[in-house]
Amino acid sequence: MGKFRQKYYDYFSRVYDRFVALHSSDRQGNLRQCLSEKTGAEKGDKVLDICTGTASLLQHLKKMTGKDGMVVGADFSKGMLAVAKEKTVNTDQAFLVRADVSHLPFKGQMFDAVTCAHAFYELRGNTQDQCLNEIGRVLKPGHPFLMLEHDVPKHFFIRMLFYLRLLSMGTSRAFDILKHEKELLARYFKYVDKISTPTGRSKIMICRNG
Ligand SMILES: C[S@@+](CC[C@H](N)C(=O)[O-])C[C@H]1O[C@@H](n2cnc3c(N)ncnc32)[C@H](O)[C@@H]1O
User: Fold this and answer.
1) Residue ranges per domain, the chain?
2) Is there an atom of ligand 1 within 6 Å of 32 CB?
3) Which of 125, 156, 158, 207 could bridge across to 189 with cysteines, CB 3.0–4.6 Å?
4) Tell me, what DSSP letter sits at residue 120?
5) How far is the CA of 119 from the centre of ligand 1 (A)?
6) How far apart are CA 155 and CA 160, in angstroms?
7) How far apart are the C-alpha atoms of 162 and 120, rounded to whole Å?
8) Domain 3-208 of CATH type 3.40.50.720
């Protein structure tokens, strides 16, 4: 695991939720509600949210999977997971796991859906490919992977902040995944669809095999 990057996210965790609200006008959680509905998850299902951060998505997913289901949030940042823990009511149905997405500590074909929100473009180099392989391994055959990503912001100031953040992360492939995500995902999934979100500032990629 990259220690420097984990530290970066540990510090970022302190202001992360406020930053997201500013960028995506997501104060009511509409965006995450929309993403969880698109998983098609049903009561009793198991759903994994990778790069879960402060676990904003888990509470929505939990409503979908109910008391017989299970949601798991995986992330490599202690800081993010600490904020997540404060927000998430720990029950038998919700778990937070510290893990790098390049090696997911789960059995094969275990999950009914995998989600990744506002994070994939920040994965560096080979990690994107390793992560997509891992997602394919832990998903049940024919079940979906859903990726929520920012569209490039229209507002000049927010756009500059957004680009600065990408540059500061040193992510050479970040711009690629923002603009050519379909081509990358199609290397790992047979079907790749793109839909816009209600805020109009993000997009959801829905991918599946078989
Ligand atoms: C921009 S935040 C997104 C958080 C959350 N998904 C959301 O929608 O608010 C990116 C998250 O990805 C996590 N992350 C980045 N690289 C990772 C890796 N290689 N393995 C696990 N988590 C990683 C960071 O710790 C951070 O919490």
Assistant:
1) 3-208
2) no
3) 207
4) G
5) 5
6) 9
7) 15
8) no
